[in-house]
Amino acid sequence: MIVRLRSLATRWTTAVPVIAVVLLAFTWGRDLPAAVVALVTLVLAGSVLAAVHHAEVIAHRVGEPFGSLVLAVAVTIIEVALIVTLMVDGGAKSSTLARDTVFAAVMITCNGIVGVCLLVASLRHGLAVFNAEGTGAALATVATLATLSLVFPTFTTSKPGPEFSTAQLTFAAVASLVLYALFVTTQTVRHRDYFLPITRQGKVIDVDEHADAPSAREAGISVGLLGLALIGVVGLAKGVSPTIESGVEAAGMPHSVVGVIIALLVLLPETIAALRSARRDRVQTSLNLALGSAMASIGLTIPAVALASVWLSGPLVLGLGPTEMVLLTLTVVVSSLTVVPGRATPLQGGVHLVVFAAYLELAVNP
């Protein structure tokens, strides 16, 4: 039975990326009727899951913490591509899309994913145990990137409104890349052991005993299929984006909800992967996925939209409003208090989830 299920999983994750690219070729640049939109949405969701599956295969081949890094970067590439493609055709109404999506990713990862993983792990195993040194370093990097890219534009005066001037945007983009590269070096080379799962006695777990690593051939196939899946996700998402925006407007919700939907879409598979690790008592891997995705979302999205702003018309609004800044500050404070002990109870998970629920409520009803 297990072999049969694995065979079925292999077949659908191979077929869906190919189907997505074929469907993209037939729908590109056309106005889509409701039935076709429903089909595209279904294939789009399957492509996201297939992309993350193949990222996980590659991650299993290279091991931790490289695996979490591969998955985070793959998901962020999807997010960045979606943002840029939507901004190209969105005009002035898409001026805040990058800010809304990046902030949504930070809230989803640092509160939603972290909260549910801590809650599941602590309820299942008594306590959620992780390495405070590695997690603290990741949180500090996320907080710095978020402040430089999303808070400072609200207070700068070189340009009217919550926008960066060209020089300031260039600095923010370069600083984001430098900090992200420095963190990746720390995570994978200098202090790799800080980001590995640990036992309740604090011993580092450097071997995954659950399954044999895929062969080089299997990993190579997954690299190709991951590329196809990413192309399918980006293209199909652009096709259904008018429907998403129309639905948000028809519901009377703020346009910023579009950014929330994009972030939820691309981070759902990562949430599933983090939950799997939490259930196995590998909370450090869950936190690597969550905070790594937040970091990659800022560290890669801001440089990408900065580069895209060269040919995009209209303003690029990155500065957060007062409500969002309060939520970001609360998230950083709560996360710091969670990380310091290196272990968490269901209470910490519940606190993060309440902050996340408050974010969703205020996004829909500002």
Following the backbone from N to C, one meets helices and strands in this order, namely: HHHHEHHHHHHEH
Task: Report the count of strand segments.
Answer: 2
Overall 3D shape: globular
Q: Between the first and last Cα atoms, what is the distance in angstroms?
A: 50 Å
Question: In words, what does this structure look like?
Answer:
It is built from 11 helices and 2 strands. It is an all-alpha fold and 366 residues long. The protein has a two-stranded antiparallel ribbon with strand order 1-2. The N and C termini lie far apart (50 Å). The mean pLDDT is 83.
Sequence-ordered SSE layout with sheet pairings:
Elements: H1 2-27, H2 34-62, H3 66-90, H4 97-125, E1 128-129, H5 132-155, H6 166-190, H7 216-250, H8 256-279, H9 283-308, H10 322-339, E2 343-344, H11 346-364
Antiparallel strand pairs: 1-2
Helix pairs in contact: 1-2, 1-7, 2-3, 2-7, 2-8, 3-7, 3-8, 3-9, 4-8, 4-9, 4-10, 4-11, 5-6, 5-9, 5-10, 6-9, 8-9, 10-11
Task: Please provide a brief summary of the model.
The chain is mainly alpha-helical.
Descriptive key words:
single chain, 366 residues, mainly alpha, two-stranded antiparallel ribbon, 11 helices, globular
